[in-house]
Amino acid sequence: xxxxxxxxxxxxxxxxxxxxxxxxxxxxxxLSESIKADAESARRFGLAAGAFRVSAGDREIVxxxxxxxxxYRSSRSVVFSLxxxxxxxxxxxxxxxxxxxxxxxxxxTPKGRIHVLVEGSADTIPVWEFRRRAxxxxxxxx
Length: 142
Hints:
Helix content: 25-40%
Radius of gyration: 16 Å
Order of helices and strands: HHEEEEEEEH
């Protein structure tokens, strides 16, 4: 996610624009572009044996890794789903087992930054950390 809003000083912040960018649907659209850039970086640096593919819709982003090894094809994926005001992150393994990793809600902090409030935590995390928590295992494990 481009950090243009997050680069403003609070006293210079157009809070109306910033607040709109933190609304779930607008945030999810920007998140989609950032995830595509993350997958491209992972491909460029050859972080895994497979190929990463990102498919995105209005309410779901799927990051899929397909591995072809010794004639076998397997895939794993991380799915970001927008459900009302919350983004739910799930992972599926090669066997098709699906597990929820975590969920979070975008918000505008008092300092005028867009962060994510992770379910079960009182703390917020930056958007890049939200993506890292969701995608690091997919990108960095073989």
